[in-house]
Amino acid sequence: MKIIDRLNQDGIHISFEVFPPKTDEGFDKVASATDEMAKLGPAFISVTYGAGGGTSKNTAKIASHIKDDLKVLSLAHLTCASSTKEEVRGVIKNLKKLGIENILALRGDIPPDVSFPAKDRFRYAYELVEEIRKHGDFCIGAACYPEGHVENEHKEDDIRYLKQKVDSGVDFLTTQMFFDNDIHYNFLYRIREAGITVPVLPGIMPITSASQMKRSQELSGTVFPRRFLAMLDRFGHSPAAMRQAGIAYATDQIIDLLANGVRNIHIYTMNKPDVAAAIMGNLSEIIKA
Ligand code: FAD
Description:
- This protein has 11 helices and 8 strands.
- It has helices at 3-7, 27-38, 56-69, 85-97, 125-134, 155-167, 181-193, 210-220, 226-235, 239-259, 273-282; strands at residues 13-18, 45-47, 74-79, 102-106, 139-144, 172-177, 200-204, 264-267.
- Helix 2 packs parallel to helix 3 (56-69) and helix 2 runs parallel beside helix 11.
- The chain is globular.
- Flavin-adenine dinucleotide is lined by residues 48-49, 51, 77, 79, 106-109, 124-126, 143, 149, 151-152, 158, 161, 164-165, 174, 176, 203.
């Protein structure tokens, strides 16, 4: 089944994310994290693609496990900048062979040793979207950035390029993490004005430790609101307290989104089924209302 068909059904759809193991030995651990998450009834589980493409096979393997063994929709991430076009085509063909219908098409980080334009590489995610479309009837998701992508000085450019990406065949978007919902509402207004009408899944990252916050900031360039920083300042020294506060903060963001009419939400659960379970427990009555 395609994720877009699921998102178009009535009700609230909450999805989770895992990252694949770097080595084959780590497979069982990640698979068992997905097994626990599947019990929580997510709309789908996405599987990230390691920077540089090194975990490509494991992304496909975990996505297959989710789809075939757990009977949950899976979304395989795929990046293009760090691989040749031929390598990317090989991954798409393999996903098709495995019956994986849903791909999150991403550019990924530009490797330091590659300069664009390069004849044998896709430069932007929209080119990857066009390529995936040639290979069959996939449901294609893509990334978007409520606070702007780090490489763009002006948000207008970001939204213009986002429109180009969506028009090349994107079915839905998932946002970069954010910690202030007003930024998301403002972004939604701007992209709708620009004519981008596909479903947008806000990406919520539960921050359960001080070190995770630092990593998240480095990765996304996100701005942490004063309320979040006060929480970190007060509870950051205690792992148990910070975990509880981070779960409460993410829950609060989700409740606000639901209260404002958002129906589809993606949680960056990483490989932590306990965190996913705690948030879903906090929402148990809310998502039924
Ligand atoms: P693009 O859409 O290609 O945009 C990249 C930059 O180029 C932007 O600044 C954009 O405005 C600009 N641009 C786009 N089109 C044009 C154009 N025609 N002309 C000029 N400029 C243009 N990374 C991984 O390695 N693995 C993952 O699994 C992964 N999952 C992610 C999931 C989500 C939901 C998000 C938000 C990010 C994820 N990333 C992942 C990170 C992502 O690969 C990086 O943020 C990357 O820098 C940009 O990818 P993109 O697909 O958004 O690129």
